[in-house]
Amino acid sequence: MIMKLSNNIGNIYKTKNNILSGTNFKEVEKQAKNIFKSIKTKRTPYIRSRYFKGEKIFLNVFWRHFYDKHEKDRVRRLKYYDCALDLIKNTVHHPITRENFENKGELLHRFSGITKDGNNFTVQVKEDKRNKRKDLISIFPK
Questions:
Q1: Distance of CA 14 to CAs 55, 99, 124, Å?
Q2: In angstroms, rounded to a whole number, what is the distance separating the alpha carbons of residues 94 and 27?
Q3: What tens digit of pLDDT does each residue of 92-134 get?
Q4: Rounded to two decimals, what is the model's pTM?
Q5: What is the number of domains present in the chain?
Q6: What is the C-alpha separation between 120 and 141, in angstroms, rounded?
Q7: Which domain holds residue 91?
Q8: Inside any domain, residue 119
Q9: Could you tell me which of 82, 127, 91, 105 has the C-alpha nearest to residue 14?
């Protein structure tokens, strides 16, 4: 079932975090990597999502997809990493969900959020229809 909901103010999760500080990629990457490394799991790093009833959202795919971007775009996106993890863990708001145009076996869930200091951003989670595995794919400001 594919559900498309309008993104009015009722569907936006307000995080408890601000964006990561820093002006260049190395500064922001160091903070984000420290957050990533602090997630202790036995194998593949993941966080559990309230929206998906405690199911795991894996984080490795994000980093592979992320390094394909231009460096200026990386800094812009990575500043929202801590906010995105908070959103995934705690939101109960419905995302905008659609089938992936490139792969019909996947669903893309887009969650909207706003940081503590008022910046809007979007987090995209990919779900494999067959095995129900969910991966964080992308984070970007609006």
A1: 21, 26, 16
A2: 33
A3: 999 999 999 999 999 999 999 999 999 999 999 999 999 999 9
A4: 0.88
A5: 1
A6: 6
A7: 13-36+46-141
A8: yes
A9: 91
Strands 134-141 and 55-58: parallel
Q: Report pLDDT digits (tens) over 44-103.
A: 999 999 999 999 999 999 999 889 989 889 999 999 999 999 999 999 999 999 999 999
Domain membership flag for residue 3: no
What are residue 68's DSSP bridge partners?
none
Which of 78, 69, 82 lies closest to 24 in space, CA to CA?
78
pLDDT of residue 65: 87
Q: Which two tokens stand for residue 89?
A: 């863990």
Helix 25-37 vs helix 81-90: crossing angle, to nearest 10: 30
